[in-house]
Amino acid sequence: MYTPRAIVFHKPRGSFSRVFRWFIRRGRQEVWLLRHYPDVAELRAGNLLGTSLILRAGAVVGLASLAGLPPLGTLGLLLLAYAAAQNLRYRFCWRYYRAVWLPVLLPLTKLTMGLGGEVGRWIEAARWARDLAGGHVRSRGTL
Q1: Which of 20, 47, 79, 94 has the highest Cβ tally under 10 A?
Q2: Which residues contact 37 (CB under 8 A, 6 or more apart)?
């Protein structure tokens, strides 16, 4: 059930490395589900590729390089824009938590989550490709 006014509490992970590992598991599970239940629309490979931070950032840095802009400067601007966008998107957090470092911690946490999920997706995709190359095709499950 979706309730827009609900406030959800999640167990704190305690460190960026724990958050990163948690999202690696989540990313691996997304690809595992795609592999075993390919008919689920939300799990289409195109959707997973479209949410890839690395691919999107790489495309922007590549295009900027073609335009003669320095790649590291472009990446720095992308990180600043990402931080601003995340702070704008989650501005409601200020009502519940008023820490001075929140504008830095929030985008760092979101970036850690996004990169962890991406690493997990790539790990599981490589496993899937290795299984296909070795002739280990698993039967499709049912929902």
Answers
A1: 20
A2: 43, 140, 141, 143
Tokens of 17: 């490395």
C-alpha 90/C-alpha 48 separation (Å) is 23
Dig out the tokens for 30 from the structure: 């997304």
Could you state, in chain order, the average pLDDT of each consecutive group of 10 residues for the chain (143 residues)?
A: 78 89 94 83 69 87 94 94 93 83 90 94 91 70 47
How many distinct structural domains can be found in the chain? 1
Helix (H/G/I), strand (E/B), else coil: 89: helix
- Measured distance CA(91)–CA(25) in Å, rounded: 28
Does some domain include residue 72? yes
pTM above 0.90, yes or no: no
Query: Alpha-carbon dihedral of residues 43, 107, 9, 21, nearest 10 degrees?
Result: 60
Instruction: Supply 52's token pair.
Output: 């890839």
